[in-house]
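ok trying again, last paste got cut off:
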Amino acid sequence: MSINILKYESDVWRTADLLIGAGIKQSDFPKYMMPYFALLMVESRLIREAARLEEEIDKDNIDDFVEMFQLEGLGYNDYLIRKGKTLKDICKNDKTFDIDFHAYLKSFDPETKYLLGVDKGTEEEKFLDISGVSGQLKKKRILFETLKAWSEIDLTPFNNSEITTLEEHIKRKWADISAETAGEQYTPDDIISLISELIASKIEDNGKFLTIYDPTCGGGNLLFGVEDKIKEKFKRPTKTFGEDWSDSLYALAKIESRFRADSEIKYGNTLTNISFIEKRFDIVVANPPYGVDWKGYQKDIQNDTTERFVALPSISDGQFLFTQHILYQLANDGLSVVVHNGSTLFSGDAGSGESTIRKHFFDNDWVEAIIQMPTDEFFNTGIYTYLWVFNKNKPAERKDKVILINASELYEPLKKSKGKKRKQMNSDNRAEIVKAFSEFQDNAFCKVFDKWHFYYNRQSIMLTNVDVNGKFLEMPMKENRAGEMVEEKSIKLNPVKITVKDDAGTTTIDNFEITDFDKAKYKSLEVRFNEEVKPNIAALDYKEQQLKVVTKKATYWYDEDKDTIIEETGGKQNELGCGKIVIKAAYKKPTKTKGACIAITVELTKDLQKDYEIIPYSPDETENQQWIADFLAKYVTKPFEYVDNVVGVEINFNKVFYSPDQLREVSEISTDLTELENELATLENELSF
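nice, full thing came through this time. structure:
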């Protein structure tokens, strides 16, 4: 690639000086610059292709020449090809400019006009909306000067790859100033190179056709960048496929695709309108948006019938939706590299959407590597990012294994920051990562694990709380319908009085079947229940208040010091064990034989508490159950019952690569302290004179 093309980067940005002078906000620059940059790209390529075709066939018969050119399928403009009149020529005469520029735009072929947004109606997709933007600049009286500045930039000497390089540098700046979501528009060149080199390490130069797909292609920098780098190393024919929902970025990618040997770019939301439903791709690369909610098309996702989504992630972050789509469209022997932020590694507990999705990936043994990138690598964010390498055709020696590569320290600082990008991976850094990935062995910054290492049991248990003596309230036994002896759920009391003492005084409840209500205060008995009785009963707290339940046979209360229920009979106190005093109020509707009433009931129950433990996982079911039993026996001291067990998956880079600080020797610290004391003593002596 010739570096000379990058000198035009500053020329492109100089066109924004006119926008500033017209009072246009910097955040709106992309809107006003994209159409003309795209126009420049199209024109330069059409001119270059016309020159190439002219070397092959004679231009004497212009009609034949035009017909041959149009058959190339690259687009067409009659001003350029037939009349040889460029944008620069149009800008030489300010008096005829308006008429000539309008005719120039109208001379493009229908698809180019469609992408540029030439004379689009208000209800149509405008994509780059060049007519609308030009109309606004004309009102501000800077259209001619703006087009003249753009026309001075000559891209005709450069090939497609070089123009793409300049385009991506410009798009990166647009991404910075428009404050778009991190990773949504632009993937840095060094990361594209790393992704390409990882892919290249896994494919063969066998001449077979290779399909490359990006479901969130934006302007196409990642998709086309990977294709270019693969073609530099291999002689395999390729075809690129891309989708995006951003009007302007789709248009840029679509324009770019027409100047490539074989490329197909579609417009739409990948998650709701699948453009390539019937296809399975050899290579999939993507930098999907992260931290972006999918609330706007939640119903479409929930009603999806493709079976792409085994689970749904949090509504606030849809990046795992894209990953599931990617793996759905990845061929059975395909390879994919996807950029994610850290939340995809660990967000969500076992059974959550995120954990279930991770488990699906690991269950199918698709995850071959996860690579942690340095911070400050991307233009819009300084956070850690991760490359997930998915392989649906792992070699036998890598089955059920995953390598974690901590490349967070493999970078060189940029001499000058580019947005939030302050670091980059040079060729040596990338080579080190690819070497580690290829060797698939432990080293200073890599660790290979059985995939089961990342699984865990979330074992739920029902604890029975006990008093200071380890005793709990025992329930009476009863025979169920099957003839089995089982515990009752509670001990029902027949209270005659409940007394409650607190700071406000003593409250007594002695009516446990209420049938009347004050008609001046309440419209009905049910209203009294909802507004008075129910909230009052709910406010009772047998632990915090001095609450006693009196029955004909005994009195019951809770001893806070011993965590036990006391049963007092004839002046004798008996400790029943830890339990709960449950007081309930219920409204009972009238029946044919009985009127409506409010019933207050009291019962004693066990003090149960649901909890869970995180326990290592074994793929062997017998061993896994034994691990759970051993763990609970070791760490849970209260009586408990098993409830449910959910298996989760998470990856914790910090835990895997944690390196504790080396503590200094005590003798060394003591020596330093002694030296400091001596220095202080010397200073004090000097100050005393």
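cool. The chain is about 35% helix and 25% strand. Residues 29-56 form the longest helix (28 residues).
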